[in-house]
Amino acid sequence: MSDRVRLVLLSFLMLFVELSLIRWLGSDVFYLSYFSNFVLLGSFLGIGIGFLRANSRFALFGYVPVALAVLVGLVLRFPVQVDRSGTDLIFFGGTLTPSGLPSWIILPLIFLAVALVMSMIAEGVARTFTSFPPLEAYRLDIMGSLLGIIAFSLLSFLSAPPLGWGGVVVAVFLALTRKPPVLAVAGLVLLVGFLGWESARPVLQWSPYYKIRLDNISYGPGDNVVILSVNGVPHQSIETLAGRRTREPIYFRPYALAQNSHADVLVVGAGNGTDTAIALDAGARHVDAVEIDPRIYDIGKRLNPNRPYSDPRVTVHITDARAFMEQNHQKYDLVLFALPDSITTIVCGFAEATWSIIAS
Q1: Residues of the chain with pLDDT > 90: what percent?
Q2: CA-to-CA distance for 85 and 87, rounded, in angstroms?
Q3: What is the rounded distance in angstroms from the CA atom of residue 356 to the CA atom of residue 354?
Q4: 124-to-64, 145, 166 alpha-carbon distances in Å
Q5: Sign of the CA dihedral 302, 306, 312, 313?
Q6: 355 pLDDT exceeds 50?
Q7: How do the domains of the chain map onto residue ranges?
Q8: Alpha helix locations (H) across the chain?
Q9: Is residue 31 within 8 Å of 97, Cβ to Cβ?
Q10: Interatomic CA distance for residues 50 and 115, integer angstroms
Q11: pLDDT tens-place string over residues 12-43
Q12: Phi and psi of 326, rounded to 5°?
């Protein structure tokens, strides 16, 4: 393998692993929903340390799989998620009880582990970097980084599970290492095993944005609720209109305020279809349902007992709500903002209750 190809692959690996860690760690460690830059800062520190070790005698790049396996094993052994025990439908605005290790233990461990992993990869980049004139090395580094971003974006678009990301890392590492150490081989096996186990769990699904978990709760015969959690946080519930009216009557409040003026309705952040089903039940003539996550829409289409997405009065738009509203000039009688922002951005700040804007 030529040095140019090697540098491109190393830069690809560094960027791809960084993006994968940012996304994957946030899906298993609840606190990282709030500290969204935590993994990024650990990556920057590690990359800086790795480049400082460019001329060190002992090369660490060959042991990257060991460090990755330890990090992945630690997180899978001690995940931090919101406790879903009990039958109370508490989402946001209530008390969220995380499981697992406290933040003052797990966050420093993750920060140090990320810094270690990224320093080992960056050291491999730096050793090859010094073989080229600065501008040439920088050009190849940028090329590899862009390819890493494109590959990660493509896998996310395809809703690939963690095993898909791990498979790319394993393939690139083996291409870069002719004779990996025995410990590295063991690390690769453990890494694939850990990520394969999580990817194969039947209760989990992966969307372009989240790790999705579905849990069933029964309140009695014919009264079942599916709790949809994203990245370890209860996010939505899927249930009949009768059950929703009993447990969360606030969902029906906008139609009482609208005084029957809701022929054309826009639902922003439509999710599994709850607000769309309520709009139809209230007599809406047409509903535009905007939802950015195709997997959550698909879950709602399959599991929502009210079947709102199969109703001919509903037009579904799988797109970003801001882009939809900028490009759409239609007037609506009622605009419902369900949960249009990223769950990891507003999880502790807003209630899930639907707010409404009544337009003339």
Answers
A1: 62
A2: 7
A3: 7
A4: 10, 14, 19
A5: negative
A6: no
A7: 3-201, 241-358
A8: 3-28, 38-52, 64-77, 103-129, 134-157, 162-176, 182-200, 241-247, 253-258, 274-281, 294-303, 321-327, 343-346
A9: no
A10: 9
A11: 999 999 999 999 998 998 788 667 688 999 99
A12: -70, -35
pLDDT at 344: 53
Which amino acid, residue 301? K
328 vs 263, 294, 356, CA distance in Å?
18, 20, 19
Residue 5: other Cβ atoms inside 10 A: 13
CATH number of 241-358: 3.40.50.150
**Spatial contact of 243 and 225, defined as CB atoms under 8 Å apart:** yes
Give the separation between CA 204 and CA 313, rounded to whole angstroms: 31
Q: Is 20 exposed, middle or buried (CB count within 10 Å of its CB: 0-12, 13-18, 19+)?
A: buried
Give, in degrees to the nearest 5, the angle at Cα 305 between 253 and 212: 90
SS3 at position 33? helix
Closest CA to 333 of 232, 236, 240, 262: 262
Strand partners, 236: 228
Q: What token pair was written down for 65?
A: 């799989």
**Per residue in 105-155, pLDDT tens?**
888 999 999 999 999 999 999 999 989 998 999 999 999 999 999 999 999
- Residue listed under structure tokens 């946080």: 233
Assign 166 to helix, strand or coil.
helix
- What's the Cα-to-Cα distance from 307 to each of 42, 131, 301, rounded to whole Å? 45, 61, 7
Q: How far is CA 355 from CA 257, 258, 331, in A?
A: 11, 12, 18
CA distances from 265 to 146, 305, 318, 337 (A): 41, 21, 16, 11
- What average pLDDT is seen over the chain? 86
